Design the sequence.
């Protein structure tokens, strides 16, 4: 799916159809709620309704010139987004953590969260590490993401990995949730997306 031909709604973001290295891409930057994390900050695919199936997209992130020290190049997807943007599931990556020596940060290269309650901060405060993991990724490089969603289970692959880097057996909004698909960004990130492919199984 050529993202240029789709209609995107900017939810607390600035969204621009542009080119990168001669290719059509979608640029997304967080605009509002600048000091909060894991919120409804994405470009939403208008008219999309997704329950089960596969979401594939290529994404690239850079740090903005005014990015704070804690910025990690946050970039990913939101899915099963409710019509009023008050609930959704998400998977994103932190490219600056991908190849770092710090073992704690290295294990936080990828992240699942569920809005509004089950954010990364919620999991960390409870010492829950099941929703993060490692990945060989970096800034300013295309990262291929594939999410395979079936009921309450989400399996997430990067860069054509044979096995999922993260499997979530109990996504927090449950097996019956459905809704729109979006491109997620967080603070300090200049995000680019291309080559969206959605395959529904129901």
Sequence:
């Amino acid at each position: 799916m050529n993202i240029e031909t789709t209609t995107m709604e900017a939810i607390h973001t600035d969204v621009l159809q542009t080119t990168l290295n001669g290719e059509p891409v979608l640029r997304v930057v967080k605009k509002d709620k600048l000091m909060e994390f894991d919120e409804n900050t994405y470009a939403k695919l208008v008219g999309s309704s997704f329950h089960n199936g596969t979401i594939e997209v290529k994404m690239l992130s850079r740090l903005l010139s005014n990015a704070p020290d804690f910025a990690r190049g946050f970039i990913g997807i939101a899915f099963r987004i409710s019509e009023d943007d008050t609930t959704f599931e998400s998977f994103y990556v932190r490219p600056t953590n991908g190849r770092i020596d710090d073992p704690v940060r290295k294990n936080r290269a990828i992240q699942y969260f569920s809005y509004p309650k089950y954010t990364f901060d919620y999991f960390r405060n409870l010492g829950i590490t099941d929703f993060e993991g490692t990945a060989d990724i970096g800034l300013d490089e295309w990262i291929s993401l594939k999410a395979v969603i079936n009921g309450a289970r989400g399996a997430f692959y990067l860069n054509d990995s044979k096995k999922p880097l993260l499997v979530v057996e109990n996504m927090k909004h449950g097996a019956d949730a459905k809704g729109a698909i979006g491109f997620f960004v967080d603070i300090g990130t200049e995000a680019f997306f291309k080559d969206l492919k959605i395959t529904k199984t129901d």
